Amino acid sequence: MTFEGRQQGAALARGDEADAAGDEYAARAPRPGQLADTGLSAPYLADLVAKHLHQNGVLALTELSRRCALAGGIMEEVLALLRDEARIEVRGGGERGNLCFGLTDRGRASALEALARDGYIGPAPVTLDNYTRQAELQGLSRTGVDRDSVHAIFADTVIAPEVLDRLGPALHSGRATFIYGAAGTGKSFIARRLARLLRGQVLVPHAILVAGKAVKVFDAGVHRPVADPASGPERGVLLAQGHDPRYVRCERPLVSVGGELTAEMLEVQYDDATRVHQAPLQLRANNGLLVIDDLGRQRIEPMALFNRWIVPLEERHDYLGLRDGQPFRVPFDVSLVFSTNLHPLDLADPAFMRRIGYKIRFDALSREDYLAIWAQECRSRGLEASPAQAAYVIDELHARFAVPLLPCHPRDLLGLALDYLAYRGEVQLTVEALRWAWQNYFMELGDTEGEAT
User: Coiled coil located at which positions (predicted)?
Assistant: First the structure.
């Protein structure tokens, strides 16, 4: 019996085989059962195994299967090739009779050559064609957004219904959205919360193979894995159940970038030290939401950024290149949201703005909405939401100094007031503390006890 068969038999004895029955993700991306099913060549996988052994020393077959995210039967075939080429040797048996392998002198030399070509060490990549099909199967257009779900998901958020009824169709359409308005009107907050409307989960590859080089896609800082009932400490990558473990099952991604954005971040990045290619922002955001915040304050000119997006927005795919100049095309299935304090026509010409499906302005709050946010912020801080204090802030401070009612003000003013109270060893919110907070927050408006400057 092969290694794969022994592991399957043990799992079946424990009844583990039922966990992934009818798994839609397994149907969408089935586990490779044979080497040919991976789309990868035996020499490529042999080099990948050699790199793992070079990095970690002696490894058992089960551990190599886990690290490469390939079934034991496939690993046995790859290891047989390495043994035939005298690149590895058996180094004894591990737990439960698992054979352990290490590199020979020839194997170490070949591993160094492989690392010089491509420094990637991790789960086996998927092919570009495989990823393209997967991205299309889980595209945003297959989920959709309806009015009832939009209003239900934002029920805990103070936002005008008419604004929601513009954001909903924008996200449903999959077209780019331009959110603009004065600073503090809640644009960034709402833009990021739009990710809650993205239904379903997606499979994100650890890496994609392009012209013999692995491009890392999965990013723990962006992608949020979800529990997969088809995986477990015993079954892992060893059984023919569950989805292809070269993918990670995740929530739809949310990528948000602000003033730190550069032109280089929109292209494949290559690390000279590790010799590894990293996917750009938009590729990591595929099948999800990409928010470009504080537009106009990046280290890339707005028009240069817009020109970079013209083809992807029109054709729904993007052109990238490896360090050696090898070009390749990837899907561009991204809900793109621009957020800015500037007027759209100050950033782009009308021709480009026509390509932006939705332009949504965020304005100051009504009195009722301001009071609602004030009450929410008080509750979150364990404060009593005094209507008299809220009215004082609106009628005596905002009105006196002609400051619009913005969503950021309750949070910021209450935060400063609590700092003041903590410093004084007090716990009860007072008008004096609110005046002090206002003066610190709006220094240019003068002393609240005197006249505005």
Answer: none
Residue 219 lies in a domain: yes
Beta bridge partners of 103: 88
One-character DSSP codes across 85-153:
TTSEEEEEE-GGG-EEEEE-HHHHHHHHHHHHH----SSPPEEHHHHHHHHHHT-GGGT---HHHHHHH
Alpha-carbon distance of 226 to 28, in angstroms, equals: 17
Q: Are 234 and 358 part of one and the same domain?
A: yes
Residues 409 and 356 in one domain: no
Percent of the chain with pLDDT over 70: 89
CB atoms within 10 A of CB 226: 10
- 201: phi > 0 → left, psi -120 to 50 → alpha, else beta; which? beta
pLDDT of res. 357: 75
Neighbouring CB atoms inside 10 A of 367's CB total: 13
The per-residue pLDDT of the chain, averaged, comes to: 87
**What dihedral angle (degrees, nearest 10) is formed by the CA atoms of 147, 343, 310, 165?**
0
Residue 390 and residue 303 share a domain? no
Summarised one tens digit per residue, pLDDT across range 182-218 is 888 999 889 888 888 888 899 999 999 999 999 999 9
For 428, half-sphere exposure in the C-beta direction (CA atoms, 13 angstrom radius) is: 3
Distance CA(278)–CA(280), nearest Å, equals: 7
Spatial CA neighbour of 279 closest among 128, 112, 178: 128
Of 121, 153, 185, the last residue of a domain is 121
Owning domain of residue 95 = 3-121
- The answer to whether the CB of 212 falls within 8 A of the CB of 360 is no
Tell which wins on pLDDT, 97 or 53: 53
**pLDDT tens-digit map of 400-415:** 999 999 999 999 999 9
